[in-house]
Amino acid sequence: GISAPLHGGLSQNDPMEEDLVTRLPFAMIDDIADGSPAALDGLLLGDEIVKFGSVEAGGRLQERLVSEALTSEDNQVSLLIIRQGSPMNLTITPRKWHGRGLMGCHFRIL
């Protein structure tokens, strides 16, 4: 009976591995303007985006990100990011400011 838990331990890894797969980042912040909504709300250069509002990995990411930001203007958007290897939740509010776009940052699709 001692070997049973060991054998069971193998199958317990499956959900976790699956979880990691769903947490793969699809974009990285490669540019942030000073004083922009993205900077003020706490995004940092090099943050990897796993989820931006309702947008997760898939096709047409750039246009889906833009449309998510536009439809969320002046409303909070929840982000799941990976910063230096650790997952973090962050909230950003896309809004008009003196610079370009509603967030003032650029996503590089990975």
UniProtKB/TrEMBL annotation:
Q: Which GO terms describe its biological process?
A: proteasome regulatory particle assembly
GO cellular component terms listed in the entry, alphabetical order? cytoplasm; nucleus
All copies of the PDZ domain together span: 4-85
What are the entry keywords? Answer: Chaperone
Source domain of life: Eukaryota
Q: Which PANTHER family match?
A: 26S PROTEASOME NON-ATPASE REGULATORY SUBUNIT 9 (PTHR12651:SF1)
**What's the name of the protein?**
PDZ domain-containing protein
